[in-house]
Amino acid sequence: MIAGFTLGASITPAEWGLASRPKNQTPAKRAHSHHIKPEDITMLRTFPTPISRLASAVRHLLLPAVVLAAAACDNPTEPIRANPRPSLALTAPTGKGQILFTSGSFDSQQFVVDPVTMNVVQQTSGPDYHSVGAWSVDYTKITFSKGLWGGLWTMDADGTNETQVLAMPQEVRSSVFSPDGKYIAFIANVPDPQVHTVELATGVIKQLTNLTGLGLRISWSFDGKKLLFTKEKGGIGNLFTIAPDGTGLKQITKCVKVYCNDGQFSPDGTQIAFIYGGQVATIMANGANMQLVTSAADPQPHYPSWSPKGDRLAYERYAINQHDIWIVDLGSGATTPVVTSRVDDTTPSWSR
Questions:
Q1: 267: domain range?
Q2: Which string of DSSP letters, residue by residue, matches 77-135?
Q3: 5 assigned to some structural domain
Q4: I need a labelling partner for 314 at 20 to 30 A (CA). Which of 118, 212, 276, 308 fits?
Q5: DSSP 3-state assignment of 351?
Q6: Nearest-angstrom CA–CA distance, 46 and 63
Q7: Is there a domain that residue 1 lies in?
Q8: pTM of the entire structure?
């Protein structure tokens, strides 16, 4: 837990470095496709080791040179993807149902894609990476983490009005708005990953857990009564829930021989989508009736996200040394590529 604080106790903004520094930024397209291979440096879903922190520190020094080199000429040896990266529009999304995702290896940013038209819009730009975004329930705000030590941020749905909610000395792994929009739950390293909430009106922060082996993702139930996260023990991950006041810790999955993680509540709160032993699966919110959604032939899926109607799932798919965004239809089982670029596309969040 945080040194000097009691588990479940309120922490004042001054004690944790709450900030409110709006920074208006309009979406800007990238100057060029950088042709950066994701195996070079992949910051997303990486534990904050000394090597990863060193990589984060030096990437700002290396990036200008990389951009200049990439702009000079395309790499003729780079394989051509079956689904090349869509053109980046400069207009904000016009309707609901957009999929927010993180894209990039060196300089990851937030993008949205329309799953019908496949139109991609870049939402953020700048030297610090913007990662692991999530929509508010009313589709007006996005919460995300910025930089390795940049803390917790929000912005408007069109990518403007970036505002730092919380300055932190450690990495924010993921965040999610409460259904009423008054709180953000997040997982941050203090120094080990723990679940916290922050009240946006007052800046009061509560640390809800003091556990080991917590995973990357946090999800909030539709009724606002439960937070969902992964906890690992003995090399096996399982899904757990806890109340927003830090009580009622409960194990949902009973995975023994396979790893279960990356859970998200469905829009109506009755089901959970998650990863079961390397496949996308669903389960009832009480832990009953587990159903596999993808097959073993679908390579290394992660981070399933429910569609507004609860009939499809967007997910992150790893193939040919990169991550792409795909959709699976829960009725037919059919899978469809949505974003398959030449950089990592990860952590989809489907707006309601």
A1: 10-350
A2: TSPPPSSPPPPEESSPP-SS--EEEEE-SSS-EEEEE-TTT--EEE---SSS-EEEEEE
A3: no
A4: 212
A5: coil
A6: 19
A7: no
A8: 0.76
pLDDT in tens, the chain (352 residues): 444 344 555 544 444 444 433 343 333 332 222 222 333 322 223 333 333 333 334 333 333 333 223 322 233 222 223 333 333 343 454 567 999 999 987 789 999 999 999 999 999 998 888 999 999 999 899 999 998 778 999 999 999 999 999 988 778 999 999 999 999 999 998 889 999 999 999 999 999 999 999 999 999 999 999 999 999 999 999 999 999 999 999 999 999 999 999 999 999 999 999 999 999 999 999 999 999 999 988 889 999 999 999 999 999 999 888 899 999 999 999 999 999 976 799 999 998 7
The domain spanning residue 90 has which CATH number?
Answer: 2.120.10.30
Structure tokens, 16: 């944790």
Q: Establish if 340 belongs to a structural domain.
A: yes
Per the structure, how many domains does the chain have?
A: 1
CB 183: neighbour CB atoms within 10 A?
A: 20
